[in-house]
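Re-running the complex after MR caught last week's input typo. The corrected sequence lines follow. Everything else is unchanged.
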Amino acid sequence: MLRITDNNLELTSTEEANINGVNTLVIRGTYSPVPSACKKCRSSVIDKEGNTNIVKNGKKEVTIRLLPYQNLPTLLKLKKQRFYCKNCCHNWTAQCSIVDKNCHISKFTTLKILELLTEKISMTLIAKVFQVSLPTVSRLLKSVEAQLPHQLKPRCFPEVLMVDEFGSHTNREDKMSFICADRKTGELIDILPSRKLNKLTVYFNRTPLEVRLK
Ligand SMILES: [Zn+2]
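Corrected-run output:
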């Protein structure tokens, strides 16, 4: 049901619990793959003499946010196996395929958030629906910035440019947006999320000076 197919991940229990005042589905599990060679000194698990180099070294519990299940916010409390290398004293935690390293939301959740970021809905709403923080949503958007279509092309402006500000509440730093139109035809030229000078300067500077001087 959770589409977790990792053979080394075993789910042990589920319960409903009140977490920070929110009724939440808590799933518990363990992730314990067989030991692998040390990534630091490359010692094998068992050497030629039959000595064991890599040993299990307790478990570390992490909390992973899954997609809501049956309308309930859902958390996976996962005990991940830790390993220790006797040769170089390096220790590490097994990495599970359902989350990226150092990430606390599942890949399914990440993909769903990215999908919703293509819709005209607020990031605040996305954060609320998936019970993640607004900076998390913002960070995900930034992570794909390089793959977004390059919309910021220099553009030509009409001879007479009409400008105004209006309340749009589209972003948190500036409640007012910027709008500009062709004074002669009334045609809309552009709408920018902020009317602040530093944002406007960047926007207009994309057009070469000689074009702007016209
Ligand atoms: Zn080692």
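None of the earlier attempt is carried over here. The beta strands are 9-19, 22-31, 54-69, 72-85, 91-93, 161-167, 176-182, 188-192. The chain is about 20% helix and 35% strand.
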